[in-house]
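Supplementary notes for students who missed Thursday's class. We covered one full example, reproduced here. Read the sequence, then the structure, then the short commentary at the end.
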Amino acid sequence: LLVRSCWSDCYMHNPRGSNNRLNERSANRKNGNRVFDSQNNNRGGYNVGDPGTTPFQTEIGQYNMKYFQSGTLGSSELEVEWTNQHGCGGNEDSDPHKLNCNMVLQYMCQDHDDSIDNTNDFPLPYLRNGDNTNTQQYNARATGTKNETQSQMNNRMTNAVEQDRVIHESWMNYDRCYQRERNRNLFTADQQLRNGRFGYSSAIYTRQNPQGNRRGYECPEERDYYPYWHPTPWI
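Structure (token representation):
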């Protein structure tokens, strides 16, 4: 189970939110573009833990938080805690304020694979922390290539995805986002969103991401507009 760290100056405490941190020995994170756009300051967030006194060198050496649920006759509750950097105002119906907000919690699940418990050889789309703070790579299909074969796409993916780097959304999720034309009915204010390499403005360009900057394999349009109009890996 992966709980998504949300944007708009929000810091998750339980379950712990990374704010793009991994194993930094400093107050500031090293790479704010490692996996997602938190839109937070460089300080804040929690490192992945170590199981002992020795810092981990690979992912199998990391400490993973575990949560237990009740049996079939009981009920389980998980307290979720976070800090808003900015206020949320009052109740819109009875105590309206100029400042208002809407807190949305999203999560992602995957089946556990016992065969990789003691290995760093993860399947490509498998959720993982990685063991360094570098951002995953991405290589778009060539301009003018309209009918890419499955083999060509697989080659682009395997040449880009690094086993030792973090994965939330998959490479394929971002690849589809990169190629999908953006929804032109979404609010963009006065931003003039550019066209991409295929001659149209794709879902990587939004009001808050007009230059199409990439952060991990996160799809900017899915991040900035909720609920999203297209299928998404987030529940």
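Commentary. The first strand starts at residue 2 and ends at 3. The CA atoms of residues 104 and 227 lie 10 Å apart. If anything here is unclear, bring it to office hours.
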